[in-house]
Amino acid sequence: MKAALLYKPAPAEKDPLVIEDLPIPEPKDGQVLVKVEACGVCRSNLHMIEGDWVKYGLPSKSPIIPGHEIVGTISEIGRGVEGLDIGQRVGIQPLWTACGRCEYCLKGFEHLCPNKKITGETVDGGYAEYILADWRHVYPIPDNLDPVEAAPLFCPGVTAYGAVLKAELKPGKRVAVFGIGGVGHMVVQIAKLYGAEVIAVSRSEEHLKVAEELGADLTINSSTSDPVDEIKKLGGVDASIVFAPSDIAAEQAIKVTKPLGTIVIGVHVRLGEFFFHEEKRIVGSVIGSRWMMNNVINLAHAGKIRAVCEKYPLEEVNEVLKRLKMGKVRARAVLVP
Ligand SMILES: [Zn+2]
Ligand SMILES: [Zn+2]
Fold it and tell me: 152 C-alpha to center of ligand 2: Å?
């Protein structure tokens, strides 16, 4: 099979991934082999590939095949697998597997399991023609979904869903979404489903256009105007959701959120001064568990959310990473082997 391998983290400009021919892996007990139809390219893939996470021990194997938002069809089934068929279309998310026994797994928050494995970071991922998956962590996909458009549901989709849940939105509430990339454009749609008024904040006019198409009530270009001034003029927001990888965006989000409000942070940022006397809440959010993932698939199946995608052949992966780094991807780049 063809696969894009990372031997040594390096800047995207240096073409860090190498396309090679590898033997197709064989499913062990409890695993299925999935023929990849589409795999999204995530900003977190870029971080790992460029070496930002070497200090956290990631990738934890070398070489590794990156990629963690995957759709494909089952082509082989190992022993002990139940309820899945050859030819069935499934998705795989960043949570490759979890222990199933710890306090987080038992509460339905297995994405916080200390013994979890992460697709494309601790086990081989989806920048390839085939991938192995744990049968308890694959998600059947309804026929009406296009594999390319469905792939981003498995990271941006579930990540956005988890963040919106934490913001506790409902009709009458107003939310500011900072960063309208792969995740942010899904946040806008899900926040609208909860009935909230949505303000989209981004430095990119192109991204704001996408937000508007997807139902944002107001857009603010943070490179030409100050979102703090603009939002305070409206009386602030009940919640902010931050997916812009920027300390300044996080600071702005804290400022525009009203007392008792919630700031949901879904990217790595440094938080500055925080005024306790307004009783705001800051909460982190990362991917999501299986029940969240299934809710996201149901929303897409019902036509209520969709990913905006650009399609590229697997061989162009290094080019795609460069485009992503330069902010030239409209919403989500998806590789097709
Ligand atoms: Zn991702
Ligand atoms: Zn666990």
Answer: 25
Query: Do 207 and 178 form a contact (C-beta atoms < 8 A)?
Result: no
Amino acid at 262: T
Residue 161 has pLDDT above 90, yes or no: yes
* Predicted confidence (pLDDT) per residue in 279-307, tens digit: 999 999 999 999 999 999 999 999 999 99
CA 152 / ligand 1 centre spacing (Å): 8
Tell me the chain's radius of gyration from C-alpha atoms: 20
Q: pTM, whole model, 2 decimals? A: 0.94
Tens of pLDDT along 102-154?
999 999 999 999 999 999 999 999 999 999 999 999 999 999 999 999 999 99
| Ramachandran angles phi, psi of 93, nearest 5° | -105, 180
Which residues are within 8 A (CB) of 308 and not within 5 positions of it... i.e. 6 or more apart?
185, 210, 214, 330, 331, 332
- CA 204/CA 220 separation, integer angstroms: 10
Q: What is the pLDDT of residues 177-191, one digit of tens each?
A: 999 989 999 999 999
Quote the CA–CA distance of 243 and 290 in Å, as a whole number. 22
How much of the chain, in percent, has pLDDT values that exceed 90?
96
Q: How far is the CA of 275 from the centre of ligand 2 (A)?
A: 35
Q: Which residues pair with 130 in a beta bridge?
A: 35
- 273 C-beta neighbours (distance < 10 Å), count: 6
DSSP string, 179-248: --STTHHHHHHHHHHTT-EEEEEES-HHHHHHHHHTT-SEEEETTTS-HHHHHHHTT-EEEEEE-S--HH
Domains in the chain, CATH or no CATH each: 2-155+306-336 (3.90.180.10), 157-284 (3.40.50.720)
Other Cβ atoms closer than 10 A to 42: 27
Q: How far is the CA of 118 from the centre of ligand 2 (A)?
A: 13
